Every structure is written in structure tokens, then in C-alpha cells.
Amino acid sequence: MPNNCTPSFTLFVTSSFIVVVVLYTPEYLRLLGAEAWSIGLFGSVTLSLLLMVPAILTRLYIVTGGRVLLPGLLVSIGLILWLTAAYLGDVSLIVEVQSWVWILISLLLLRRWHGEKRCKSPTSSQRMDTFGAHAMIRYQAAFLISVGIAAVLFIIVPNFIKGYQILLVLTTIMVAVLKSRVAHDASKYEFDTLNSKRNHRSSLPDTFIMLRNLPPSLRSLLIADLLLSFSVGMVAFFVSIVIVHHHQLNTTILSIDLQSGTTFALLLGIQTVMALMGIFPSMWLANQVGSRVVVGTAFFIVAVFPLLLIGGEFGGTITLFAGVGWFLATIPVQTSLLAERTRRHHVFDTYSIVRRAAIISAPFVAGLLYGNGPELMLGFSSCVGLLGYWEFLRFVRRSRT
After folding, report:
1. Residues ≥6 apart with Cβ < 8 Å to 257
2. How many structural domains comprise the chain?
3. Would you say residue 364 has pLDDT above 80?
């Protein structure tokens, strides 16, 4: 794998700041009056833009001859709308536009213009786990910096809306300072990636036929991964609301009273530290006892995470987020297992696209359920996750026969 495929640490820091802002945004939307279904819509729009915007950016990069003036303008407009959404209020145009809608519009302008490098799937001579481990370490280190700054910020500014807006201003400065380098690198990469995939397009029916004709053991593995991804997608865009609003996890550390916004940042920090500490041990365990054991423990943890989150005890929640950190640490092993099992059938890239498209609806489904109570959403998410874990056990059993 070429070294220049690895995203720069600058890109990771910029991306992680935006991810932290996005994780806090659902609670911000709730405070602006958004209902649960619209917060779920926000999550689904975010995931859909992960698929659509890179192609738009690539075309724009080609048309402008590599100039980033228009993308920069769109970033600026998006950030201004995001920052001022709380003050715009409800505006009556052709239809009434509520304040939270401005954030969705700004997301359309902002999301993914900062760029994100992804590497091609591994070949028989390339080990995805080793390469993925180094990329994971760099990203988790950058993310730890971001959540650390967020934690300090919410200690200084306990008011959630004000703290969130300051965090957004810091992110704006980060994007403004680093945008030129990031946009150039990311745009070039997206262009290369698009060209590399032009010869691998297939129709949706052909894709489903190909996946349906896979061996039973491999099909169980892919179904398990898909269901677990859907479960994670449901919870990811509501976890800040559960921690900050529903459970109101305030705590005291070293005689410092921490509001729930700070607590959420600390939980993310614990998750990230666990992810950093667990990457190479998970790879070592995979070599010793097999990747199926390592992936199985990770899948079980994220399957029961939503159900156990209903309790809301601070000590138990720390354990849960540390468990999610272990899940993140095993991502290189998960990817290696998927790549190894699918390589002979040449469906790794196709399945990755199908999975990303399939989980787009997960946040919206979560929003519809959350409107009837957070316990219903969390319980349903765990049911989906446990069904995925059951499919993984079927994969283990079938692969032994």
C-alpha cells in the first residue's frame, strides 16, 4: 500500500473536529425545537452526503481546474448558517422554515467539503489490518485532541448552546486555516478514486443477485456486519441526547462540577483512549486465537450497548463507552476478516457500497422510534444488533463445517 494513500494528520484533525461537532449537533437541534424525527433526518442526510458529495466535489474540482474558491465559499456560507441557526428563528418563505432546517442546509454546504481520504480494498499481497491500524491510530489521536478541547470548553462554558457555538467557531477557524491543503489533497484523491471505480460499476439488481449467490457462511458474515452497522447507525446520532438530556449525566471530578456536555466529551475521550490502547492488542489476539473471536467480542459489545445504556448510571456508562472503544480498536481486524472472506468472490468493494447505502435510513428510523421514548429506540437498536450477532455466530458455525 503506498504511503501517500495514508491521510495526513492535518486531515485527521480537521475531520475529527467536524465529527465532534456533528456528534453534539443532535442535542443542539433538540434545543432549537427539532423533533426526534427531524433529528433522525439530520443523521440520514449526513450519511447520504457521505455518498453523494464526493462525486459533486470531484466534478467541481475538474470544472474549476483545481481551484477551491467555490468550495471555500460554500464552506463559509455553511458555517455561517450553522452558527446563526439559533438566531434566525422560524422564517416564513414559501413554507415556514424552522431554525433547525438551517442546520440541515448548512450541513449540505459543509459536510465533506473538508475531504476524507479512503484507501482501496486490499489485494492478496496487502495486509489491510496493519495499514488500517496505523490509520486508526492517527485518527483516534486526532479525535482525542478534539474531544479534549470540547471537554475543557464545556467546563469553561457550562451553557450547552453557547459552548456548542464556541466549539463550532473553533472548528470554523480550524477549517479556514487548514482548508487549502486539505481541499487540494482530498479533491485529488477523490478524482483518482472516482476514475478507479468507473470500470467497476454494476446495476443494483446485479449486485443483489451476486450477494444472494454467495456461500451461506459468507452471506451470514455480511448480514451480521450489515445489521450491526445499522444498529450503530441508529444510536450514533442520538447518543448525545441520551447522555446530555435524557440521563443528564452530571458528575463531579476533583471537586469540579461537570455538566452533561462535559461528561459526554469525557465519555468520548475514554472511548478513544480504549480504541488507541486496543488496536495492536486486538491484532495480536487475532493472530493468537483467531479473528473470529476478536470480532465476535466486539460485535457482542455494540449489540448490547444500546440496551445497557438505558440504565444511565455514570460508572456503568464509562464501561459501555470503553467497550465501544474496543469495538473501534478491532475495526482493522473486522476489515481484514471481511476482505479475506470476500476476496475470492470479488465482492468487497461492492458490499462496502451496499452497506453504506443501506444504513442511511438507520438514524431516521431511530428518530421515529425515539419520538415514542428513548427506551423503545435503544431496545430496538439492541434487537437489531443481537440479530446481527446471531448471524455472526451462524457464520462461525458454518465456516467450521
Report:
1. 250
2. 1
3. yes
The β-bridge partners of 253 are 256
Nine cell digits for residue 322: 470503553
How far the first Cα of the chain sits from its last, in Å, is 34
Query: Residue 251 forms beta bridges with which residues?
Result: 258
Q: Is 103 in contact with 164 (CB distance < 8 Å)? A: no
Q: Environment class of residue 196 by beta-carbon count within 10 Å: exposed (0-12), middle (13-18) or buried (19+)? A: exposed
Supply the CATH number for residue 238's domain.
Answer: 1.20.1250.20
Check if the beta carbon of residue 178 is closer than 8 Å to that of residue 17: no
Rounded Cα–Cα distance for residues 21 and 106 (Å)? 13
Q: In terms of residue numbers, what domain contains 308?
A: 3-118+126-192+202-400
Report the pLDDT value the prediction gives residue 131, as an integer from 0 to 100: 53
According to the model, what pLDDT value does residue 63 have? 56
What number of helices (H) and strands (E) belong to the chain?
16, 4
The CA-based angle 179-180-186, given to 5 degrees, is 80
β 256-258/251-253 pair status: antiparallel
pTM attached to this predicted model: 0.83
pLDDT given at position 313:
83
Q: For the residues 269-278, what does the mean pLDDT come to?
A: 95
